[in-house]
């Protein structure tokens, strides 16, 4: 797919999403960006829509406004998520529902609503390198919700072929958390074959690849410096 002048919906523009948005704008892509609380600043060419993506009516409003503004929708990059520790001692049904709703339910709702408006296009979802084989301790609902994203990717790809291609990116150590100690950092680097943090631009490059590729669907692409094989 030639992406210049295509219209895409991008959800979740904090941190890595900011870099993805800028990469798309630089390529001449028209984007509609959703946000919950703080409106991002990406320039006047962007359509900004405040929405709770766990609410089907608000999701429908996002898609409707995007199509009305640009005249068409050609794809979705769904990055919106949460990442909160939920230790076993305090783990609750509320934790489960929050993770499943914000991560898995929102992905289904947005992908289904966007796909129903596209004759052809691309959908990209975001999982996590660890969840299928090395799930993080104290993040049980998060791990399950992100695992569901991988299953959703494959099911959507089969349902929507041949005209809509659906893939998933599973990031590894991309951005070092601000609260990481030197010991934490050393452990990550030791466990990553490429021995470095990837940087947000690696996700942006992967997004651009999947948008432009026309013979890739139903795949989970690990962008993790080899962490998943360590």
TrEMBL record:
Keywords: Oxidoreductase. Belongs to the short-chain dehydrogenases/reductases (SDR) family. GO terms for molecular function: oxidoreductase activity. PANTHER family: OXIDOREDUCTASE, SHORT-CHAIN DEHYDROGENASE/REDUCTASE FAMILY (AFU_ORTHOLOGUE AFUA_5G02870) (PTHR43639), SHORT-CHAIN DEHYDROGENASE_REDUCTASE FAMILY PROTEIN (PTHR43639:SF1). This is Short-chain dehydrogenase. It comes from Candidatus Doudnabacteria bacterium RIFCSPLOWO2_01_FULL_44_21. InterPro entries: NAD(P)-bd_dom_sf (IPR036291), SDR_fam (IPR002347).
């Amino acid at each position: 797919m030639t992406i210049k002048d295509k219209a895409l919906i991008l959800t979740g523009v904090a941190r890595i999403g900011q870099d993805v948005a800028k990469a798309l704008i630089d390529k001449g892509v028209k984007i509609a960006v959703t946000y919950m609380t703080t409106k991002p600043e990406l320039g006047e060419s962007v359509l900004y829509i405040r929405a709770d993506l766990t609410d089907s009516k608000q999701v429908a409003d996002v898609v409707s406004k995007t199509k009305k503004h640009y005249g068409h929708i050609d794809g979705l990059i769904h990055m919106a998520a949460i990442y909160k520790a939920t230790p076993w001692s305090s783990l609750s049904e509320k934790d489960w529902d929050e993770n499943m709703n914000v991560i898995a339910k929102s992905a289904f709702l947005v992908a289904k609503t966007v796909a129903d408006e596209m004759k052809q296009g691309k959908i990209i979802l975001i999982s996590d390198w660890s969840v299928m084989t090395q799930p993080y301790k104290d993040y049980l609902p998060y791990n399950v919700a992100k695992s569901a994203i991988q299953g959703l990717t494959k099911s959507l790809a089969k349902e929507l072929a041949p005209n809509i291609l659906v893939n998933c990116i599973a990031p590894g150590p991309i951005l070092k958390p601000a609260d990481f100690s030197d010991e934490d950092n050393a452990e990550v680097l030791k466990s990553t074959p490429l021995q470095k943090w990837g940087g947000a631009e690696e996700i942006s490059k992967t997004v651009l690849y999947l948008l432009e590729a026309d013979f890739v669907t139903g795949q989970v692409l690990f962008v993790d410096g080899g962490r998943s094989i360590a």
